[in-house]
């Protein structure tokens, strides 16, 4: 069979494998939850009520932690290519066994390659699924596998180009991180390792102030476990995304990187709207506390969702137009202004203190980003329900 076709089959296989591995949950350890860093941050974010504290957690993350694009995009490319190379090694080992053991014994080079294949195969198999990434991001092993693959496909330009591209990606990240680490090579390599590592420690998230969704979720679970040890905590997922959640009075509130906090049905609707292809296959996992750590237990998500509600339309506000209208009103020095958020009352229950406070902060932050110092001219923000809509009433300071 043409090796190019084999390679394409491997590509499909490892891509499916990667999507499966994306459901591997990153849960903080007891040591991380009760670390001095998390305790200090928990004390810093704590206020008198759960309403304020939950919103503080999300607002702090939105303000202080940036999305780690290299860890999201570059690591995805790295994982797929690395998994393909490991697949080539596994395939070579299997083919040699099929062809015959005599070839292995009579050719020293083939024998060495077969031993390498066997070792790599063993490491990958015993590490699936939770620690698979530890071997994929092991640079020294990947270098060995790359050389091995080039030996097999020494005349295949496609394979050579892909392997070269992989190492260009790695070298580019090293150079980029050297600048970020002020030329410290050791720190740059450590940052490269953390970029490619599937699961990193909470301390690293706080150190870099950068994260991807699974890191945000892990940090949030660590904070919630510290602040609210008696509440049920969850991780909600769909392919390529995960977020933390907490159950309060029978409601599941999702805390996902940025304000506002959303009830689980609202979160699912928005995810489905924003990610029409990937935003399916929702799952929920309850975090189980044990004496020696934490584990997760998959639950039936159907009991938490309202299918009739999910059939309702979600309408994104046109914030550009709203900002322009507010600017004109502020210039004219009128005392107040109202605008409507269409269908928002369906998705955001402003009779719920957590949702109302979160939505108010969300709107304030949008206005603060747009108007900067002029935001101080906004005296008060009031939310009212009008049928399916939410009316936002702004009161301005005059003079």
UniProtKB/TrEMBL annotation:
GO terms for biological process: proteolysis. Keywords: Hydrolase, Membrane, Protease, Transmembrane, Transmembrane helix. Residues 37-270 form the Transglutaminase-like domain. The chain crosses the membrane at residues 6-25, 76-105, 111-128, 135-153, 159-179. It comes from the Archaea. The keyword Protease applies. GO terms for molecular function: peptidase activity. Belongs to the UPF0252 family. This is Transglutaminase-like protease. The lineage of its organism: Archaea, Methanobacteriati, Methanobacteriota, Methanomada group, Methanococci.
């Amino acid at each position: 069979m043409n090796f190019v076709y084999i390679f394409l089959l491997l590509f499909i296989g490892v891509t499916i494998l990667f999507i499966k591995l994306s459901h591997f949950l990153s849960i903080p350890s007891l040591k991380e939850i009760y670390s001095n860093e998390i305790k200090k941050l928990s004390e810093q974010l704590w206020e008198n009520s759960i309403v304020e504290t939950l919103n503080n957690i999300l607002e702090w993350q939105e303000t202080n932690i940036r999305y780690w694009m290299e860890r999201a995009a570059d690591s995805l490319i790295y994982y797929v290519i690395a998994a393909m190379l490991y697949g080539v090694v596994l395939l070579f080992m299997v083919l040699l066994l099929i062809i015959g053991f005599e070839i292995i014994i009579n050719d020293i080079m083939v024998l060495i390659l077969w031993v390498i294949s066997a070792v790599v195969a063993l490491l990958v198999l015993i590490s699936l699924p939770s620690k698979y990434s530890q071997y994929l991001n092991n640079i020294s092993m990947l270098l060995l596998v790359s050389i091995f693959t080039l030996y097999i496909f020494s005349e295949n330009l496609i394979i050579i180009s892909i392997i070269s591209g992989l190492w260009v990606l790695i070298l580019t990240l090293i150079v980029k991180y050297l600048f970020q680490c002020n030329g410290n090579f050791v720190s740059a390599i450590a940052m490269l390792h953390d970029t490619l590592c599937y699961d990193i420690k909470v301390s690293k998230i706080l150190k870099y102030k950068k994260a991807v969704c699974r890191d945000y979720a892990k940090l949030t679970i660590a904070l919630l476990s510290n602040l609210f040890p008696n509440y049920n905590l969850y991780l909600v997922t769909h392919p390529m995304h995960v977020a933390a959640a907490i159950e309060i009075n029978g409601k599941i509130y999702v805390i996902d990187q940025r304000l506002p906090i959303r009830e689980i049905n609202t979160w699912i609707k928005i995810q489905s709207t924003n990610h029409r292809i990937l935003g399916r296959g929702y799952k929920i996992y309850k975090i189980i506390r044990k004496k020696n750590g934490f584990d997760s237990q998959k639950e039936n998500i159907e009991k938490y969702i309202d299918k009739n509600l999910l059939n309702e339309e979600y309408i994104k506000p046109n914030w550009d137009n709203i900002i322009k209208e507010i600017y004109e009103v502020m210039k004219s020095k009128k005392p107040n202004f109202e605008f409507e958020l269409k269908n928002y009352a369906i998705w955001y229950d402003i009779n719920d203190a957590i949702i109302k406070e979160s939505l108010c902060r969300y709107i304030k932050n949008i206005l603060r980003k747009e108007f900067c110092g002029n935001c101080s001219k906004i005296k008060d923000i009031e939310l009212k329900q009008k049928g399916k809509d939410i009316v936002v009433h702004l009161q301005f300071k005059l003079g």
